Write a sequence for this structure.
C-alpha cells in the first residue's frame, strides 16, 4: 500500500492526522525495503512526526494483541504483518537449527567424496559436506567461483549415502533465470564431479544419482496470481525429503515466511547464496540477517566459502575489496589488470560512443546463420546461439532516466539491429534475428517467468522464433505467443542476479549521492563478470558506493540472535 493510501485509510477509520503521518512514513520505509520504520531516524528526518500519536490504543500495540501497527519501544514501528512474519521466521529457523538431522558424514567418506586428501583450498567445502546433515537447517554462503554448486552436489550425494536411498529433493530459486542457471551449473558440476570420482568408492553412487529438477520458488509454493497467495501451506505442505533454495539472498521476508510455513518441520532446508549481494526487491534482508546471526554462534549450521577457484584472480581481488568496503583496494584492483577498467562516461556523447562500440561487439557474439531444418540439430544450434547471450552484458544501476536500463536497452536494441543487418534493417516489426529478449511477467502456462532471457533466431523455414533455455533444453516459442517482454540488451543490476557473463559493462549514476548507489550494488554488479569488467563511473562515485553499505531497518537479526542464544548451552548441535 502506498504512503498516501495508508495515511488516508488511517484517517478514514478514526486514527487522526498525527498517526496518519506516521503511517505514511512507515509505508514509505516499506517501499524502500525496510520491514520496520526506524523511529529515531524517522523523527530526525521529519520533526513534525508526533511521538505521542504512537500511544493510540487500538491502533499501536506491543504485539500481544492484533493491532494495525506494532511498536518496539523507541526503536521500531511495524505493520502487523511484518512484525508477525519476523517472529514466525525467527522461531522457525531457530527450531530447525536446533533440531538434529542425519548427523555428520564420516571423515573418511568426505575424503573419498573429494577424491583424496586436499591441498587446503577446499577445506571449507569439505566442512560443508561433512556438516550439512547436522541440523534441519544449513546455510552455505560464498562469493562467485567458490564452488557453491559443486559443494551442493557433494552434499546431496552425502545425504543419499546417509539415507541409503536417493532422497526426494526439491530445488528452487527465487527467479526463473536463477533456476535456469542452477540447472545448467548442476549439470556442468555433475560432469566435473564424475571425472573426479571415477573409479573410486563414490563412483557407483554418482552413477545412480539423478539431478533434481530446479524450479522457481513461486512454482514450488504453488503461487496463485489471481488470489495473490500460495497454494502450499501447513495444510498442504511441500512433499520432499529435502528442500534446497539457491540464490537465497534474493528471498524477501514474506517469501521465506511462506516457505517455512509450507515446509514440514521434519524436512531439512538448505539455503545457498552470496550474503554480500543486493538485498531482495521486497522488504527485508533475510539471508544477510541469518548469516550474521549464525556467524555469531559457535557451531552454527553455516559454512562460508572464501577461496575462489577461478583463474581470473583479478576479479576475485576486486570483489573481495568491494565486499570489505575498501575503496583504495578496489581502485587498485581496477588498475592492476587490463581486463578491469574504471571508465567514466561524462555526457551523452561519451555514452553514445560507448554504446555503439558495445553493439558492434555484441553483434559478433549473437550473429548466427538460420537454424538447421532437422529438429535435434536446430535445438543444438539454438543452444550454441543462446550461449552467446552469456558472453557479454550491459548492466545499469537504475531502471529509468537517461542512464537507466530502459533507455540504454532501447538504444542498444536499435544499434544491434543495424549491426546485425549490416545497415538499416528493412524488416518491419520490432523483432529481428539475434535480438535478445527478457520476459517481464510470469506466465506459468508457457513455462516462462519474469527474468527469463531468450534470443530471436531464424528457422530453416524462414520464420523468426524466440528460443529460451528451459529445464528440457532449448525451446522455441512463436513470437506472438510470448508473455510480456522487452529488449534485454541492458538489464538492471537487480535483474542480473542469478546470472554470470564473460564480459560485463556497468553504468553507474553520475551523482555520488544517488540513493541507489551502495556497496551491495557494486559488489553484485562486479561479481556478474567472469573474465572482464568495465565500471562506467568516476572515482568519486566508486568511493561513495563502496563506503555505503545497505542497512535495512528491521528486527530479524536481533530476533534470530535471541533465539539462537536460547539454545541449550548457547551452542548449536
Amino acid at each position: 500500500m502506498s504512503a498516501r493510501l495508508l495515511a488516508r485509510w488511517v484517517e478514514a477509520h478514526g486514527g487522526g492526522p498525527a498517526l496518519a503521518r506516521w503511517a505514511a512514513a512507515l509505508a514509505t520505509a516499506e517501499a524502500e525495503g525496510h520491514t520496520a520504520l526506524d523511529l529515531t531516524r524517522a523523527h530526525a528526518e521529519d520533526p513534525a512526526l508526533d511521538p505521542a500519536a504512537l500511544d493510540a490504543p487500538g491502533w499501536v500495540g506491543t504485539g500481544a494483541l492484533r493491532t494495525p501497527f506494532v511498536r518496539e519501544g523507541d526503536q521500531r514501528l511495524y505493520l502487523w504483518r511484518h512484525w508477525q512474519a519476523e517472529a514466525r521466521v525467527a522461531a522457525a529457523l531457530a527450531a530447525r537449527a536446533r533440531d538434529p538431522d542425519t548427523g555428520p558424514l564420516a571423515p573418511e567418506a568426505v575424503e573419498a567424496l573429494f577424491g583424496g586428501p586436499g591441498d587446503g583450498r577446499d577445506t571449507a567445502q569439505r566442512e560443508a559436506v561433512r556438516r550439512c546433515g547436522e541440523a534441519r537447517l544449513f546455510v552455505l554462503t560464498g562469493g562467485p567461483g567458490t564452488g557453491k554448486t559443486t559443494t551442493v552436489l557433494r552434499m546431496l550425494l552425502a545425504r543419499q549415502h546417509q539415507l541409503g536411498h536417493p532422497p526426494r529433493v526439491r530445488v528452487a530459486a527465487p527467479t526463473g533465470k536463477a533456476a535456469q542457471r542452477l540447472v545448467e551449473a548442476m549439470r556442468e558440476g555433475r560432469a566435473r564431479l564424475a571425472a573426479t570420482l571415477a573409479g573410486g568408492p563414490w563412483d557407483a553412487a554418482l552413477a545412480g544419482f539423478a539431478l533434481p529438477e530446479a524450479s522457481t520458488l513461486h512454482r514450488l509454493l504453488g503461487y496463485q496470481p489471481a488470489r495473490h497467495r500460495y497454494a502450499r501451506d501447513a495444510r498442504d505442505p511441500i512433499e520432499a525429503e529435502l528442500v534446497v533454495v539457491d540464490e537465497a539472498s534474493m528471498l524477501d521476508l514474506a517469501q521465506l515466511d511462506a516457505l517455512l510455513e509450507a515446509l514440514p518441520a521434519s524436512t531439512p532446508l538448505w539455503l545457498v547464496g552470496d550474503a554480500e549481494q543486493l538485498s531482495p526487491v521486497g522488504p527485508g534482508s533475510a539471508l544477510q540477517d541469518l548469516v550474521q546471526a549464525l556467524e555469531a554462534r559457535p557451531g552454527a549450521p553455516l559454512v562460508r566459502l572464501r577461496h575462489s577457484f577461478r583463474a581470473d584472480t583479478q576479479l576475485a581481488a576486486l570483489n573481495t575489496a568491494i565486499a570489505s568496503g575498501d575503496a583504495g583496494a578496489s581502485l587498485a584492483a581496477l588498475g592492476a589488470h587490463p581486463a578491469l577498467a574504471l571508465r567514466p562516461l561524462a555526457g551523452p556523447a561519451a555514452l553514445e560512443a560507448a554504446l555503439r562500440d558495445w553493439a558492434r561487439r555484441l553483434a559478433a557474439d549473437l550473429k548466427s546463420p538460420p537454424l538447421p531444418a532437422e529438429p535435434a540439430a536446430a535445438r543444438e544450434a539454438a543452444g550454441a546461439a543462446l550461449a552467446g547471450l552469456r558472453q557479454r552484458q550491459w548492466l545499469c544501476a537504475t531502471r529509468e532516466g537517461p542512464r537507466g536500463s530502459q533507455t540504454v536497452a532501447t538504444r542498444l536494441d536499435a544499434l544491434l539491429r543495424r549491426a546485425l543487418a549490416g545497415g538499416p534493417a528493412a524488416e518491419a516489426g520490432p523483432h529481428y534475428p539475434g535480438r535478445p529478449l527478457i520476459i517481464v511477467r510470469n506466465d506459468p502456462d508457457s513455462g516462462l517467468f519474469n527474468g527469463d532471457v531468450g534470443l530471436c533466431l531464424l528457422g530453416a523455414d524462414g520464420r523468426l522464433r524466440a528460443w529460451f533455455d528451459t529445464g528440457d533444453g532449448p525451446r522455441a516459442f512463436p513470437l506472438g505467443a510470448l508473455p510480456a517482454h522487452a529488449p534485454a540488451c541492458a538489464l538492471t543490476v537487480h535483474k542480473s542476479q542469478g546470472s554470470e557473463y564473460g564480459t560485463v559493462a556497468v553504468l553507474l549514476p553520475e551523482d555520488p549521492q544517488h540513493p541507489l548507489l551502495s556497496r551491495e550494488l557494486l559488489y553484485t554488479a562486479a561479481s556478474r563478470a567472469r573474465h572482464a569488467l568495465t565500471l562506467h563511473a568516476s572515482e568519486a562515485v566508486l568511493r561513495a558506493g563502496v563506503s555505503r553499505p545497505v542497512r535495512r531497518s528491521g528486527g530479524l537479526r536481533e530476533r534470530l540472535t535471541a533465539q539462537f542464544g536460547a539454545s541449550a548451552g548457547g551452542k548449536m548441535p
